[in-house]
Amino acid sequence: MFHRRYAGSAAVVSIFLTLSMRVSAQPSRISRAIDKSQRVTLTGHVHPKALLENDQGRVSPSLELSFVTLALAPSTSQKADLSQFLIEQQTTGSPNYHHWLTPEQYADRFGASSSDIGKITAWLQSEGLTVTSVARGRNWIAVNGTAAQVEAAFKTELHHYLANGEMHFANATDPSIPAALDGMVHAIRGLNDFRMKPARRQKNPNNTTPDYTSTHGNHYLAPNDLATIYNISALYNAGFDGTGQTLVVAGQTQIDLTDIQQFRTKFNLSSNDPKIVFVPGSRDPGTVNGDLGEADLDLEWSGAVARNATILYVYAYDVMTAVQYAIDQNLAPVLSLSYGSCEPETAASDAAAMQSWAQQGNAQGITWFSASGDSGGADCDDSRNPGLAVDLPGSIPEVTSVGGTEFSEGSGQYWNATTDANGASVLSYIPEIAWNDSALDGSPSASGGGASIFFTKPAWQTGPGVPSDNARHVPDVSMSASADHDGYLVYTGGSQAVYGGTSVPTPVFAGLAAVLNQYLVSKGQQSTPGLGNMNPQLYSLAQSSPAIFHDITSGNNIVTVNCGRRVITCSNTAVGYNAGAGYDQATGLGSVDAYLLVTGWTGSGSSSRSEATLTLLSNLSTVGPTDTVYLTATVTGRTTPTGTVTFSATGVQIGSATLAGSAGKATATLAVKGSALPLGSATITAAVNGLNDSLLVSVASASLSAGAPAINALTNAASYQQTFAPGAIMTLWGTQLANSTQIASSVPLPVNMSGVAVLINGVAAPLYYVSAGLANVQIPYETAPGSATVSINNNGQVATRTFTVAASGPGIFTDQNGTVVPFPTAARGQEIAIYITGTGAVSPAVSTGAAPATATALSDLPKPSQFVTVAVGRVPATIDFIGITPGLVGVMQLNFTIPAGVSPGAQPVVVTVGGIPSAAATVNITN
């Protein structure tokens, strides 16, 4: 039986839990009473489309306004501190490198004081406004109220405006605030209902059932096409698909989940519905036809890349309210926004407010992706502003702007004639040019890009091709965006459509960032997910590791805005930029090889052959003609190895097996009959990806193995119940399981001992202990839930048995009386440690048979991926720590506090993982 006493680490845990960043609260800045009669005006708040010629008169006093937001400005010292802090977060070697803040930590360092928040909310409430939300970061306050209340509070008038055939409301003059708040409030959002537009283009709007690869030579992108073109498939093969990660898609419409479900079903993606989050206190937009296709596109294609990530769809009437809420609530380390507005037609106050959110998001580790726009160099695409312009919020330096490319096959053959079972037909990467379908579409339809009029050039935007001016330039990166050549398949409104525009590569890059976060955490290159502002590293990698990028050197985003005959300020002049070597204002740094980007993100580069190793082991050194020998090849590297291992005996191939594994380690096992090997001394060789290893076996004329083993029962090694999960310890009970007793003496655990090897679904299972009557093995983490087969090979004789694996199957280690170890007795309020197995998948991943390194920080130890609870005497207990500590394999230490409400005496302890409870163990409670 597998029972050991382990030293508890309660003292270490207690110290860890007391560690947190201590930052003193900010002093109050409102030094005098708020006098409504003494006021200051906030400039830059009149929307550029709220023109006198469009004025339709004052709005009704009863018009309801929601989520009118006062953006609070940091003090001068806070602003300087924040700028330096954001630089340090992206500077390797700095104590603040990738040190992400919580919203509360952000508030204490860069937000307003609680006292000032109280004074401002009291004034707003005195004006009859309802305070809907106060930011956790203490940098904004949102209110609801009628037009009459808003006008009175901010001393402005709200009017209706007819702009581009649509009726809107907006403030006719700049608002004002009490003079006591001067310097505290730098912007007010929500005084108008001009909303951003989606950056989306559609092909064949009347064709709802396009072919993927048609007989006419038309091609449309399915998820696996994109994965092949940009080498995302190599990440999937290595086990990186966004598992354990979360990203936010921001929108401004309700959605129908059946569209997303149909998309995933059509392309054989596993079921993974997005979670819907409506911003509380905001106006519900209902289903908006003009926005539904955008929401479906963003959700489907972010999920097509980060296939197993949790995707949150956060929406409100105004998409920027959704962005504001997602950042303040710190909902995910990745944010995708496929909406924008051109800078000349955006209020300066809005630009300032958006940048403040982006800076907070970066400080919290959030990477914000935004579309660069679909109107080429003339982003506004209207006769009033027909010249050069770029798109907000992509032009904000703390946001990653995503532009568009277009495939250019030339005479190359890059597509199969038909699609496969997953709807894919592409063969390889396809050369790209800058996306510009304006001539084909009859209006500007090209990758947005150019120079910002709001933001100066950040220090990190350097390199070949970057203009030598002082403006922030966009885009930063690009990816395929043409709806015409070749569009993305999307399900929306119950039917299939083909979309393009920079709306698509934006969620694609967001999905890729989620996969990158998974990779960095799993490799121990960072302790928690989050990249913050990834732009500095992108521009650095473009110079240090140019192979990561596909440099787009052909094409342009030059467009001509069609001027109306009555507009005298417009001329039919083409504006835009050519693509070129290095950075350009049509495609930025270019598109990426996803595998090289992810594996080379820290500058260490991807795993190479010289950095990987292969080890070949056999369960037998002497083989008879009727024996079965198990050959196990183990490959380790920086990334989890993939490929097919070829086995040969004295130069003759005897079979092959596919590598499977995780966390930088993979194994392939081949079962071979002795009769298939040459008599005498045989050299067995395993080879894969340029690696090889060999061993010698002696093939005899008669079997020398022991009698046939038999498996009588299988149990969880802790609970003795038939509950099994990936990574758990399983006991095999039987006869003649081994010829001698042996205990593993080191970690990683061996895969054979005394001529005994165990396979579970063909994958080698590490061994803790073997004897004639029982064997303790670890179920490989890569074992999928469902029916499984275990086989034990005792020196050539094999026995098998089937069992069922679940996502979790917790068992508590006890003594022979069923009492928890190592602390069978505890007082109420005391913290104790117990040990469990069968929690299932863990994060970060750990290799099967391996234990965490001794130097691993407590916060970085592998923890269950599923929700865990503990109850003592049916009373919920507080979990103080849970994780696999150094030296443990497949065993989780769990520290918890005995609840005060538990009665004295023997009480049951039950651990529940992912909704599955363990068998009860016992703890003796003292008074």
Features of the shown structure:
927 residues; alpha+beta; Rossmann fold; Immunoglobulin-like; 4 domains; eight-stranded mixed sheet; globular; disordered N terminus
Offer a quick outline of the entry.
By secondary structure, the chain is α+β, with helices and mostly antiparallel strands. α8 crosses α9, α9 (289-305) runs parallel beside α13 and α10 packs parallel to α11.
Shape: globular
Count of DSSP-assigned helices: 15
Identify the CATH class of the largest domain.
Alpha Beta
N/C terminus separation = 33 Å
In total, the number of domains comes to: 4
In CATH terms, what is the architecture of the largest domain? 3-Layer(aba) Sandwich
Q: Tell me the major beta sheet.
A: 9 strands, mixed
CATH superfamily of the largest domain: Peptidase S8/S53 domain
What is the mean pLDDT? Answer: 88
- The class by helix and strand makeup works out as alpha+beta
Q: Can you count the beta strands?
A: 59
Q: Could you characterize what this model shows?
A:
This protein is an alpha+beta fold and 927 residues long. It has four domains: 123 residues, no CATH class; 397 residues, Rossmann fold; 89 residues, Immunoglobulins (Immunoglobulin-like, Sandwich); 117 residues, Immunoglobulin-like. 17% of the residues lie in helices and 32% in strands. The protein contains 15 helices and 59 strands. Strands 49, 50, 51, 54, 55, 56, 57, 58 and 59 form a nine-stranded mixed beta sheet that branches. α8 crosses α9 and α9 packs parallel to α13. The N terminus is likely disordered.
